[in-house]
Alpha-type protein kinase domain-containing protein (Melampsora larici-populina), 379 residues
Amino acid sequence: MPATNYNFVTPDPEDEEEVSQEITGSDLNPALDISDPHRGASFEFSAMSIEVGQAQAVSTSFAGSLVLDGLEDSYNYANDILEQSQTIEDESDIVPYYETIEDLGRKKNGMLYRLSPKCFRDQQPHYNPLEVVPYLDDRVGYSEGQQVQVANHSLDWVVRKAYLHHRDYQIAGSYHIKYNLTWANLLSQGRSHCFERAQNSRYVAMALESFQKDLFRKRRENGNGNINPLHLQWAIVASSMSVQPLHILQSSATATTDNEPLWKIFKGATTARFHRFIHVNAFHNEPSMEPEAWPWTSLIYAFLHYTYELSGDRTLIANLDCDEHGNLSNIVCYDKETVPYHSRQSVEMAKAVDLAFSKFVDQHECNEVCEHVGSVNLK
């Protein structure tokens, strides 16, 4: 089909006047007002051919001349494109595309399970190890680092540095992988132990939020009076406490060795300087060195008492660490009426739970924060 040539010329000034009479100022962009003698634009097109009936335009050459405020800029788009296409890079600088693909030699993979949080709604919410907890699962990659030497851990426990690769930047980052070597000999491979720990941390995180809100509300005298400086200080320090995230990792068979279990704890990394404030044999284990460096001491023991009463004397925090930044980790909870599922057939575990509740009542020392939040003296 023959091509049709179109020539575009600048409109005649008389036509401009006719157009300007029909278009009002509100309809016309002032920046493009052709009636302004100080603003103008002229375009010259040459040798442009458009094939009629086809949705494709081919231009053999295009030269545009733009005049704006007396300045003239010339563009030749065809020549620019041609120059770019003729640019040849030095072969020594070329890197094949496959060299940029990530090396998976040190990356392992598995399924990451994250328990969904919730808010307390009951009058006496307690930890329920048999609760059906919704969770999210993701196939993830992770890299393991060197082993971390942790005090107060038995030789069966292994803790390693790890980095989690995840599409969500709030989840990706540095973690600690933790597992017990004895889990590799169990049929469950540590599944129930890992989920039990994750549910413990989930419950304590919810209880801590309730504790922090109560302290904030009670910063004023009688609830609505003047702010008490000491009570305000307690609320501020308590707000810096947080429960480290704890997820469950089911590693693939190719990512584990013979002496490693398939299920592992994936917890947020803490600093090397920490103190175990609570464990099953000592419910009042204050730091002996530099006590002034641990402003959370009184708050942690008041929180232990608070959680116990919040649950109707049914839930007990039996293990808790806190690092120098106020991050709580290694949390273990006991329910007075239910033995942990992984030890449901163990008579020794049932006795250990009963003994822990008795020791807490005997060893706990109420402090000013306990009294402030309304906890009843256990003695």
The domain at 95-373 is CATH 3.30.200.20 (Phosphorylase Kinase; domain 1).
